[in-house]
Automatic annotation (TrEMBL):
CDD domains: cupin_MtlR-like_N. GO terms for molecular function: DNA-binding transcription factor activity; sequence-specific DNA binding. The lineage of its organism: Bacteria, Pseudomonadati, Bacteroidota, Sphingobacteriia, Sphingobacteriales. PANTHER family: ARAC-FAMILY TRANSCRIPTIONAL REGULATOR (PTHR43280), TRANSCRIPTIONAL REGULATOR MTLR (PTHR43280:SF27). This is Transcriptional regulator, AraC family. The keyword Transcription regulation applies. PROSITE patterns: HTH_ARAC_FAMILY_1, HTH_ARAC_FAMILY_2. It comes from Pseudopedobacter saltans (strain ATCC 51119 / DSM 12145 / JCM 21818 / CCUG 39354 / LMG 10337 / NBRC 100064 / NCIMB 13643). InterPro entries: AraC-bd (IPR003313), Homeodomain-like_sf (IPR009057), HTH_AraC (IPR018060), HTH_AraC-typ_CS (IPR018062), RmlC-like_jellyroll (IPR014710), RmlC_Cupin_sf (IPR011051).
Length: 290
């Protein structure tokens, strides 16, 4: 799947961009951009792909994407239906690494911020009090003008640079793609899997989508995602099952088969391996939080 290079529009009176989005779905194509991105989810849910990592997103999440880091959003089906009335909402901040000048973040006083921006190339999930503080500043940014905007952005970066509540999304560095053909191929594969992961998918079928042989596909997919094809498919299905366990009253066995599994024992084992607890433990734990 080719990550699209997005050009972020910029008001000529501003050195960086912040906006409040109300949309039918977040951008669903695998893409990247030069600008660093900070997204605070206000309304909406689905799956979020950052590099080789898959994670559900929900209201209250705060995620930072570094420069050139490929990512995509897969909103839940409720937002993707024709004539869907439900909307997703988020505050989205984009700023170039050199928005304050080429050497600004190289200043001795900005050493911690420079380290943060480098770490963001692996993706960062912000938690706890740090998230609450940054979300409040992002709300202020929406209505600010002049030098106040710069001060608020620097406050956000300061909070992030000293926070102990950051979760690195990708432990390994981002995979680079050397040709348009190979990234187009992976783009097609991702979109097909996202549309069909709850049904049985034969290796031959997905290899045809990539226009290579089944044997070559297995090697290719592992080299570009650091995951086996079967492992990636299981991860998609388990994330779907975890969501159904919280949002529906269906039995665990119903959810097992609805998520694309045809073996209950394999489902339980895979769920515990990925989520860290059994399906019933997950349902009980998450419902106790509400």
């Amino acid at each position: 799947m080719r990550p699209h290079l997005l050009k972020i529009p910029l008001n000529p009176e501003h050195s960086f961009n912040v906006r409040y989005d109300i949309v039918s779905h977040f951008y669903k194509m695998w893409h990247f951009h030069h600008e660093i991105e900070l997204v605070y989810i206000i309304k909406g849910s689905g799956l979020q792909f950052t590099g080789d990592h898959i994670h559900p997103f929900k209201p209250g999440d705060l995620i930072m994407f570094g420069s050139q880091l490929p990512h995509l959003w897969r909103s839940d089906e409720i937002y993707l239906q024709p004539n869907a009335s439900e909307k997703l909402e988020a505050i989205v901040l984009h700023f170039s690494p050199d928005c304050f000048g080429r050497d600004f973040f190289s200043l001795a006083e900005n050493k911690q911020i420079a380290k943060l921006l480098d770490t963001a190339k692996k993706g960062i999930r912000v938690n706890g009090k740090s998230k609450e503080s940054i979300a409040a500043i992002m709300h202020q940014l929406l209505g600010s003008e002049g030098s106040r905007r710069i001060i608020l952005l620097l406050q956000i970066l300061e909070v992030l640079s000293i926070s102990a509540e950051l979760e690195i999304v990708n432990q390994q560095s981002n995979i680079e793609f050397n040709s348009a053909t190979e990234i187009d191929r992976l783009n097609n594969v991702y979109q097909f899997l996202l549309d069909n992961y709850t049904r049985e998918i034969e290796l031959k079928e997905i290899a045809e989508i990539a226009n290579i042989t089944p044997h070559a596909f297995c090697r290719y997919f592992k080299s570009r995602t650091r995951k086996t094809f079967s492992g990636f498919l299981i991860e998609l299905r388990i994330n779907h099952a975890a969501k159904l366990l919280i949002e529906s009253n269906k039995s665990v066995s119903e959810i097992c088969y609805e998520s694309g599994f045809n073996n209950f024992s394999h489902f339980n084992k895979s769920f515990k391996s990925i989520i860290g607890r059994t399906p019933l433990q997950h349902r009980k734990s998450m419902l106790n939080l509400t």
